[in-house]
Protein backbone atom coordinates (compact mmCIF):
# COMPACT_ATOMS: atom_id res chain seq x y z
CA UNK A 1 0.00 0.00 0.00
CA UNK A 2 1.40 3.38 -0.98
CA UNK A 3 0.31 6.45 0.97
CA UNK A 4 0.91 10.14 0.29
CA UNK A 5 2.48 11.23 3.57
CA UNK A 6 3.48 14.77 2.60
CA UNK A 7 1.08 16.14 5.22
CA UNK A 8 0.15 14.55 8.54
CA UNK A 9 -2.95 12.38 8.41
CA UNK A 10 -4.14 10.52 11.53
CA UNK A 11 -5.87 7.91 9.37
CA UNK A 12 -2.55 7.02 7.69
CA UNK A 13 -0.98 6.57 11.13
CA UNK A 14 -3.71 4.07 12.08
CA UNK A 15 -3.42 2.19 8.78
CA UNK A 16 0.35 1.84 9.17
CA UNK A 17 0.04 0.75 12.82
CA UNK A 18 -2.56 -1.89 11.91
CA UNK A 19 -0.48 -3.32 9.05
CA UNK A 20 3.05 -3.35 10.46
CA UNK A 21 2.82 -2.32 14.09
CA UNK A 22 3.59 0.77 16.09
CA UNK A 23 7.09 2.29 15.93
CA UNK A 24 9.77 0.80 18.18
CA UNK A 25 10.19 2.50 21.56
CA UNK A 26 13.20 4.69 22.27
CA UNK A 27 14.82 1.94 24.35
CA UNK A 28 14.32 -0.61 21.56
CA UNK A 29 15.76 1.83 19.00
CA UNK A 30 18.86 2.31 21.16
CA UNK A 31 19.21 -1.44 21.73
CA UNK A 32 18.95 -2.10 17.99
CA UNK A 33 21.41 0.75 17.27
CA UNK A 34 18.93 2.50 14.99
CA UNK A 35 15.92 1.51 12.92
CA UNK A 36 16.36 3.65 9.83
CA UNK A 37 18.59 3.41 6.80
CA UNK A 38 20.57 6.20 5.27
CA UNK A 39 19.03 7.53 2.09
CA UNK A 40 19.72 5.42 -0.96
CA UNK A 41 19.57 6.19 -4.66
CA UNK A 42 16.68 4.56 -6.50
CA UNK A 43 17.95 3.04 -9.74
CA UNK A 44 14.74 1.53 -11.10
CA UNK A 45 11.12 0.94 -10.10
CA UNK A 46 8.29 -1.20 -11.40
CA UNK A 47 6.04 0.34 -14.08
CA UNK A 48 3.17 0.81 -11.61
CA UNK A 49 5.43 3.04 -9.45
CA UNK A 50 6.77 5.30 -12.22
CA UNK A 51 4.32 8.03 -11.17
CA UNK A 52 6.21 8.34 -7.84
CA UNK A 53 9.50 9.16 -9.56
CA UNK A 54 10.73 12.55 -10.71
CA UNK A 55 9.94 13.23 -14.37
CA UNK A 56 13.17 15.11 -15.07
CA UNK A 57 16.62 13.63 -14.74
CA UNK A 58 16.83 14.26 -10.99
CA UNK A 59 18.12 11.52 -8.73
CA UNK A 60 15.38 9.77 -6.76
CA UNK A 61 16.05 8.93 -3.12
CA UNK A 62 14.40 6.66 -0.57
CA UNK A 63 15.08 5.37 2.91
CA UNK A 64 13.73 2.45 4.90
CA UNK A 65 12.31 2.35 8.42
CA UNK A 66 11.95 -0.87 10.40
CA UNK A 67 8.78 -1.72 12.28
CA UNK A 68 7.93 -4.83 14.36
CA UNK A 69 5.86 -6.49 11.60
CA UNK A 70 7.19 -4.83 8.43
CA UNK A 71 9.02 -1.94 6.83
CA UNK A 72 8.25 1.53 5.51
CA UNK A 73 9.97 2.71 2.35
CA UNK A 74 9.83 6.50 2.22
CA UNK A 75 10.21 7.90 -1.31
CA UNK A 76 10.83 11.59 -1.96
CA UNK A 77 9.45 13.18 -5.15
CA UNK A 78 10.27 16.86 -5.19
CA UNK A 79 8.39 18.33 -2.24
CA UNK A 80 6.10 15.32 -1.86
CA UNK A 81 6.68 12.24 0.30
CA UNK A 82 5.24 8.80 -0.34
CA UNK A 83 5.36 5.84 2.02
CA UNK A 84 5.20 2.25 0.80
CA UNK A 85 3.98 0.00 3.63
CA UNK A 86 5.28 -3.60 3.35
CA UNK A 87 4.48 -6.33 5.91
CA UNK A 88 7.28 -8.88 6.39
CA UNK A 89 5.18 -11.73 5.00
CA UNK A 90 4.99 -9.92 1.63
CA UNK A 91 8.63 -8.77 1.59
CA UNK A 92 11.15 -10.32 -0.81
CA UNK A 93 14.76 -9.07 -1.06
CA UNK A 94 17.17 -9.69 -3.94
CA UNK A 95 20.87 -8.82 -3.95
CA UNK A 96 21.78 -8.11 -7.59
CA UNK A 97 24.13 -5.21 -8.31
CA UNK A 98 22.65 -3.28 -5.42
CA UNK A 99 19.48 -4.45 -3.75
CA UNK A 100 15.94 -4.93 -4.91
CA UNK A 101 12.85 -4.97 -2.70
CA UNK A 102 9.75 -6.70 -4.07
CA UNK A 103 6.21 -6.84 -2.63
CA UNK A 104 2.58 -6.42 -3.69
CA UNK A 105 3.42 -6.65 -7.41
CA UNK A 106 5.88 -3.74 -7.18
CA UNK A 107 9.62 -3.38 -6.80
CA UNK A 108 12.30 -0.80 -6.04
CA UNK A 109 15.92 -1.36 -7.06
CA UNK A 110 18.58 0.58 -5.17
CA UNK A 111 21.83 1.52 -6.89
CA UNK A 112 25.05 -0.06 -5.66
CA UNK A 113 26.63 3.23 -4.56
CA UNK A 114 28.58 4.49 -1.57
CA UNK A 115 25.40 5.18 0.41
CA UNK A 116 24.13 1.67 -0.33
CA UNK A 117 27.38 0.14 0.96
CA UNK A 118 27.05 2.20 4.15
CA UNK A 119 23.67 0.49 4.73
CA UNK A 120 25.06 -3.08 4.81
CA UNK A 121 24.55 -3.40 8.59
CA UNK A 122 21.03 -2.06 8.19
CA UNK A 123 20.16 -4.71 5.57
CA UNK A 124 21.61 -7.41 7.84
CA UNK A 125 19.33 -6.14 10.63
CA UNK A 126 16.35 -6.12 8.23
CA UNK A 127 16.98 -9.72 7.16
CA UNK A 128 17.37 -10.79 10.79
CA UNK A 129 14.01 -9.22 11.73
CA UNK A 130 12.30 -10.82 8.72
CA UNK A 131 13.67 -14.27 9.60
CA UNK A 132 12.56 -13.87 13.24
CA UNK A 133 9.10 -12.80 12.08
CA UNK A 134 8.86 -15.77 9.67
CA UNK A 135 9.91 -18.20 12.42
CA UNK A 136 7.14 -17.02 14.75
CA UNK A 137 4.47 -17.72 12.12
CA UNK A 138 5.66 -21.01 10.62
CA UNK A 139 3.20 -23.83 10.25
CA UNK A 140 3.98 -27.25 11.75
CA UNK A 141 5.24 -29.67 9.08
CA UNK A 142 4.24 -32.95 10.72
CA UNK A 143 0.52 -32.81 9.95
Helix and strand topology:
Layout: E1 2-4, H1 10-20, H2 26-31, E2 40-45, E3 60-67, E4 70-77, E5 80-87, E6 92-94, E7 98-103, E8 106-111, H3 114-118, H4 120-136
Antiparallel strand pairs: 1-5, 2-3, 2-8, 3-4, 4-5, 6-7, 7-8
Describe this structure in words.
With 143 residues, this protein is of the alpha+beta class. It has a single domain, classed as PH-domain like. The protein contains 4 helices and 8 strands; from the N terminus they run βααβββββββαα. The protein has helices spanning 10-20, 26-31, 114-118, 120-136; strands at 2-4, 40-45, 60-67, 70-77, 80-87, 92-94, 98-103, 106-111. The chain has an 8-stranded antiparallel β-sheet, covered by helices on one side. It is globular, with a radius of gyration of 15 Å. This is Arginyl-tRNA synthetase.
Amino acid sequence: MILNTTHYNAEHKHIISDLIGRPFSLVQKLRMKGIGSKRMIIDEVSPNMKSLMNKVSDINYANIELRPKGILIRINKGLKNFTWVIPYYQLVLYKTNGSSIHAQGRFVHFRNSKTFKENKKFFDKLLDLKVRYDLTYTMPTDI
